[in-house]
Design goal:
globular, alpha/beta, 16% strand, TIM Barrel
């Protein structure tokens, strides 16, 4: 199964920001037990060492799971970061914005492209530039009415809802036509990680996975 089909099948991309090494491994194993098969390691743009740290984290997960989890890079803002992620073994590139140079380099290197967009013009610009999916961001803030309205004229674009997606609203996003979601706080909850309560994170992952399976193509 190619990357785009894998994403559309599994639907839930866990967004990992500022989580590295043993903490990342502990989280990833907990989520894997709950059915999560897509992990996004973000570039922390405030960290001068973000390229090295993100690359190391992507490589670590690829070694640990051997392809059972498809790992992508997030908050990718430049073609150089696309290249760094590719060298580390990233399968797809996610951005908060639509940058044509980033999309172009992503596709040149054979990776899945998921740029971020909010308006119809941004969404179609990303789609027409070759993006496999477009990340609708911030999805929960924009709301269901907004999603329904923009889906009417551009239903051919595959959208991934990101920002404020929870167990309570994920199913409704899927019912309104998105093909997946990027999920952060509910799956990487720092309080639970600090308390060592990975079982609760596994339980949350199971809930997201069950909702996704109910909407599989």
């Amino acid at each position: 199964m190619d990357t785009a089909a894998y994403i559309e099948s599994h639907k839930v991309i866990c967004i990992c920001r500022k989580i590295y090494e043993k903490d990342l491994l502990a989280l990833s194993h907990a989520l894997y037990q709950g059915g999560i098969r897509l992990m996004e390691i973000t570039f922390d743009q405030s960290d001068p060492a973000c390229e090295a740290r993100t690359a190391a984290a992507i490589s670590l997960l690829n070694r640990e799971f051997g392809g059972d989890i498809q790992v992508g890079a997030g908050t990718v803002l430049t073609p150089s970061q696309v290249e760094t992620a590719h060298e580390a073994g990233a399968a797809y590139i996610i951005s908060p914005n639509t940058d044509l140079a980033v999309i172009r380099r992503t596709k040149e290197l054979g990776m899945g492209s998921i740029p971020g967009a909010m308006t119809p013009s941004e969404i179609l610009t990303a789609h027409n530039a070759g993006a496999d999916f477009v990340k609708l961001f911030p999805a929960a803030w924009l709301g269901f009415s907004y999603l329904k309205d923009i889906r009417a004229p551009i239903s051919h674009v595959k959208l991934i809802a990101t920002g404020g997606v929870t167990e309570e609203n994920f199913g409704q996003f899927l019912e309104l036509g998105v093909v997946g979601a990027g999920v952060s706080s509910r799956l990487v909850d720092k309080k639970l990680r600090d308390a060592g309560d990975y079982a609760q994170l596994t339980a949350r992952a199971e809930m997201f996975t069950a909702i996704a399976r109910g909407h599989q193509i």
